[in-house]
Amino acid sequence: MAKVKNPLFSIEARGGLDGLVYNTWRGISYVKTNTTPANESSANRLIAQARLAAVSALWRDLSDTQRDHWRRFADQHLFPDWTGDDIRLPGFHWFVKLNCQLDRHGSAYIDDPPSAPFPNAIQQCTLSWNDITQDIELTWGSIVGNPIPLDIWITNPMSPGRIPRKEDAHFHLFLADALPQPQPILGLPESLRYGVWVRRVSDTTGLESLWMSDYIDVP
Q1: 3 state SS of 33
Q2: Which residues pair with 137 in a beta bridge?
Q3: Long-range contacts: 13-16, Cβ < 8 Å, 24+?
Q4: What contacts 82, CB < 8 A, 6 or more positions away?
């Protein structure tokens, strides 16, 4: 791995190009050769691959009219990329994205794009430490709109000097937003730093709210 300055004549670069991977770690930009992940055959990866294949196959079963509806939906709904810039996803990608979310919830697939609005984001995401139960607890405040499950992602334990990023987080659990607060989310964690990202995901449309996040140093 080599550290780089102004990679590709830009402030920052991420992603792969000609066998090289550009990224940023602890504020340092670097580039390394692309290698096959060691957990390529992990259970979670295989489940995700099977889900993606199953949902992608459903696109071929749609009528031309239904596919046109998804393309119009894509034209009307932009999606933020990792830089925060809004991009336009193809209709096929929206179909796969929403139906994969629904599959993760155990909900039925949808053939037509949703007409319902995107869920409102939670008003806050606050983490605290409970000395008695030895839990990280999550508080999210009141939520406007109908009850919609919370999609919670968490990082692996990291050093206290590191700022958690969304790219470091992985899916942790779903919570019904009617549960009492604060809600324990990680019992007996290591004495390190954790970052948590929370959003609302509709279990009938697959639509997501914006993320809210916080991090905590476990004593």
Answers
A1: strand
A2: 128, 184
A3: 14/82
A4: 14, 167
> Residue 23 is which amino acid?
N
- Beta partners for 155? 169
* Distance of alpha carbon 205 from alpha carbon 99, whole angstroms: 8
**Whether 177 contacts 150, CB under 8 Å:** yes
Question: To which residue do tokens 């989310």 refer?
Answer: 185
Residue type present at position 158: M
pTM as predicted: 0.73
- The residue type found at 88 is R
Intervals of CATH 2.60.40.10 along the chain: 126-217
Task: Let me know if domain 126-217 sits in CATH 2.60.40.10.
Answer: yes
Residues 45-98: tens digit of each pLDDT:
788 888 899 999 999 999 999 999 999 999 999 877 666 678 888 999 999 999
